[in-house]
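Hello again,

I reread your note about wanting to compare the complex against the isolated chains. To keep things tidy I'm splitting this into two emails, and this first one only covers the full assembly. Below are the input lines as submitted, including protein chains and any nucleic acid or small-molecule components. They are followed by the predicted structure of everything together. The single-chain runs will come separately.
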Amino acid sequence: MVLSEKMKDRIEMAAAALLIGAAVVGSGAMAQRDRDPAYQQAREAGLIGEKTDGYLGFVSSPSPAVKALVDDLNIKRKAKYTEEALVNGATVEEMAFRTGCRLIKERTAPGEMYQAPDKSWKTRDASQPLVDVRCP
Amino acid sequence: MRHGLTMDGNGAIRQNMKKGAFLFLCIAASALPGCVQVSAPDKPIVINLNIAIRQEVLYRLDQASKEVIEENSEIF
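Full-complex prediction:
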């Protein structure tokens, strides 16, 4: 079977598009799987939630295990925020806050907890979450 | 050729006189009240560009936050 150059190009492009599509779909599911199961469980159980400042917070007083888990994650988050803030000429708080906006909007699943601008805890549902006016 | 604008000796003097008259008029006009006076301020002019820079930083942070979440999904 003889394929013209144009046909070959088209087939290659279609294959590339398929690969990219699969990668995009995969990344969403991967995000959940990358989490420590204990962390994922605490999120789903509503013990912890996303705060407005870009860190995790306790909705109810935590068990020592959950507290240790969250403290560890928050330290790691702060390290990343610090790195990125430095690169972008911003403060750590600004970087953390901006990421917090995104985390509440894009990374909380229905049933999980997040902090509203008035600092109260809300349960995420299918509707848009309440975010600070400074969020983009 | 008394009235013509020739470039002989007489014409050149005439032109110089015209320039002098024009200069005199300018000086006279500037002495009149109601003229717009523009004077340099004694303080330096400060233009605040911080707002624009801040906006750019915030825009970059939005991109950075996306990347930081994607690259470190286990902690977010």
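For quick reference: The CA atoms of residues 49 and 73 of chain B lie 36 Å apart.

B.
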